[in-house]
Design a protein that fits this description.
It holds the Pfam family Acyl-CoA_dh_1. Its cofactor is FAD. Belongs to the acyl-CoA dehydrogenase family. This is Acyl-CoA dehydrogenase. One of its GO terms (molecular function) is flavin adenine dinucleotide binding. By secondary structure, this protein is an alpha+beta fold. The protein has three domains: 85 residues, Butyryl-Coa Dehydrogenase, subunit A, domain 1 (Orthogonal Bundle); 112 residues, Beta Barrel (Butyryl-CoA Dehydrogenase, subunit A, domain 2); 146 residues, Butyryl-CoA Dehydrogenase, subunit A, domain 3. Helix content is 48%, strand content 15%. The protein has twelve helices and nine strands. Strands 1, 2, 3, 4, 5, 6 and 7 form a seven-stranded mixed beta sheet that branches. Helix 1 runs parallel beside helix 3, helix 8 packs parallel to helix 10 and helix 8 packs antiparallel against helix 11. The longest helix is centred in the middle third of the chain and has 34 residues.
Length: 391
């Protein structure tokens, strides 16, 4: 569970880069959604330290990725969300020749942006049987449907879309690109993650090659050597979608750990510097109690998130349950931690001149994407009892 020496070095280098190269842009850079050019610029800069979808040597093992996510999110959760949701870019080469040819230049120049399209307006947390459909027509699929609350939607070139496969009679993911298939978007505003663009996606008879179905693309890439099964996260845990969802849920927990780390550092510094009644407020008992609660939440959340990442890496049978446990508990705890830290700041905690209001907004946002806390509790309950409380 303890980081290796190499992981500590990676953590320290990412922290130094974030503090020196990214933090000076804040909070201004987080006041509105990143444009496509700005998002690409940030992801290109992060690639210099092997972080994000454009990195040549990414930290692909789940535990190291979790540590990196904590450090990026400590400074700017919106950037981590934008990078994480552009993950389909890293799978670009396993999909159809039609899509690869259309975006060869963007891919070579690290100017390709991706997104995951999962949530639907009528379904919310119910992603088991999506209304978005993928109907076979010759050697193509025809995609129809609507997705909402999709990070990167307004700036995405390619979307990995959860849809119901009529031929296989089950859900799968399908890569839909803007150039050859086309889709419409509409931006959405939200409470937190202000720097990360969010929106709706609309698919109207979007035709894609059958090679753009994720399960097929993964199997073909493994069989012809383009993807090494021993190095692929899709090779662990059996079902590629389950593995992906577990990683995404625990990834949300890692972002929350980063937010808690930032809130803790800010609260501790303020408590030791701010004086009331002729002594630092940190010398008052109630402030020390809040610092205790903040640090306890931070350390517990970090341990649970990293333990879950380790289980995902091992393909452990409890990885799905643990990912929902970490997503639900850690994200909720980050709201409590940010709230306590804001309370320590008093009136200054409400001011946009201080970072606490941003930490709180980002933390509060964490409890909903990739499955609400309530859904995570039901997933954990099902995994523990083998009795399903939802259909």
């Amino acid at each position: 569970m303890m980081p290796t020496d190499e992981q500590r070095m990676i953590r320290d280098s990412v922290r130094e880069f974030m503090d020196e190269e990214i933090a000076p842009d804040l909070p201004e850079a987080d006041r509105k959604p990143l444009s496509k050019d700005d998002a690409i610029d940030y992801m290109q800069r992060m690639a210099e330290i092997d972080v994000g979808p454009y990195a040549e040597e990414r930290f692909d093992d789940p535990l190291t990725s979790t540590i990196v996510s904590e450090e990026v999110s400590r400074v700017w959760p919106s950037l981590q969300v934008t990078m994480g949701m552009s993950l389909p870019v890293t799978m670009f080469e396993i999909f159809s020749e039609r899509t690869r040819d259309a975006y060869a230049e963007e891919y070579d120049e690290d100017r390709l942006v991706g997104c995951f399209a999962i949530t639907e307006p009528s379904g919310g947390s119910d992603t088991k049987v999506p209304n978005t459909t993928a109907v076979t027509d010759g050697d193509e699929y025809v995609i129809n449907g609507e997705k909402t609350w999709v990070s990167n939607a307004p700036i995405a070139d390619i979307a990995l879309v959860v849809a119901w496969d009529d031929k296989a009679d089950r859900r799968d993911m399908f890569l839909v690109d803007q150039k050859t298939a086309g889709f419409d978007t509409r931006p959405l505003e939200k409470l937190g993650w202000k720097g990360s663009p969010t929106g709706q996606l609309f698919f109207d008879d979007c035709r894609i090659p059958q090679e753009n179905k994720l399960s097929r693309a993964v199997m073909e890439a493994m069989s012809d050597g383009r993807m090494d099964p021993s190095e692929s996260s899709f090779a662990t845990g059996g079902n590629p979608l389950n593995t992906m969802f577990a990683s995404m849920r625990n990834g949300m927990a890692a972002i929350s750990v980063g937010i808690m780390q930032a809130a803790y550092e800010a609260a501790l510094e303020y408590a030791t510097d701010r004086e009331v009644f002729e002594k630092p407020i940190g010398q008052h008992q109630l402030i020390q109690e809040k610092l205790y609660n903040i640090r306890a939440g931070l350390e517990t959340g970090r341990l649970l998130t990293r333990y879950t990442a380790q289980k995902i890496a091992e393909g452990d049978e409890e990885a799905r349950m643990l990912s929902s446990l970490s997503k639900g508990w850690v994200c909720e705890k980050s709201v409590e931690v940010a709230d306590d830290a804001m309370q320590i700041y008093g009136g200054n905690g409400l001011s946009t001149d201080y970072p606490l209001e941003r930490y709180y907004r980002d933390a509060r946002t964490m409890t909903i994407p990739d499955g609400t806390t309530e859904i995570q509790k039901l997933v954990v309950g099902y995994e523990l009892t083998d009795m399903q409380a939802y259909t």
